[in-house]
Amino acid sequence: MSVAAEETSNSGRTIVVGIDPGLRATGFAVLEVVNGELKLHHLGEVKSSAKRPLQERLESIFAELEAILGQWKPRMMALEKLYSAYSFPYTAVVMGHVRGVLCLAAQRAGMEVTEVAPTEAKKALTGYGRASKQQVSVAIGRLLGLKEPPDSEHIADALALAVVGALRLDSSAPSQAKK
Fold it and tell me: Checking DSSP bridges between strand 112-116 and strand 25-34, what pairing results, if any?
């Protein structure tokens, strides 16, 4: 699922891509800061089938993301910081694989990568680091003027990460969703 792209040149513009890494679904969102406002250009998910071998799934994620980065030429990738519960160590290993191909795509595109903790993204959007996913989705919708909140948690998370990335790059970006 993707929203149609508008334009692809990045001559002096502040464009950020937010990435919520996942092996089944990697969410992405491309935002631009325009006169202190955030403009959504492109969003979606890169999905891979559990029936395919790991290396094919990673290659698919890499190729699709590399195409998005090539089209939009963002200055920064805001990538969700790796975390894992002690009871699920395998999840951290799999996420490490996915993050590795995402970082490689960013390196090949010559862009900066910044890691964002989920609590930091929640706090930037809602003022509260332990906000629920629903609260974050509503804040994103309000901030970006979306008619409906994102229909995927991966996309919502990618949007939140992109907002934090935009804040780190451009101090004129809005700091919180309007109340």
Answer: unpaired
Task: Render the chain in DSSP notation, one character per residue.
Answer: -BPPP-----SS-EEEEEEE--SSEEEEEEEEEETTEEEEEEEEEEE--TTS-HHHHHHHHHHHHHHHHHHH--SEEEEEPP---TT-HHHHHHHHHHHHHHHHHHHHTT-EEEEE-HHHHHHHHHS-TT--HHHHHHHHHHHHT-SS--SSHHHHHHHHHHHHHHHHH-TTS-SS---
> What is the C-alpha separation between 95 and 88, in angstroms, rounded?
11
The first and second tokens of residue 121, run together, are 């993204």
Known catalytic membership, residue 80: yes
- Which pLDDT band, with edges at 50, 70 and 90, does 83 fall under? confident
Q: Which amino acid is it at 15?
A: I
Given the residues 45, 64, 154, 170, the one annotated as active site? 154
Q: Are the beta carbons of 72 and 105 closer than 8 angstroms?
A: no
pLDDT tens digit string along 128-173? 999 999 999 999 999 999 999 888 999 999 999 999 999 998 766 6
Catalytic residue among 20, 45, 157, 170: 20
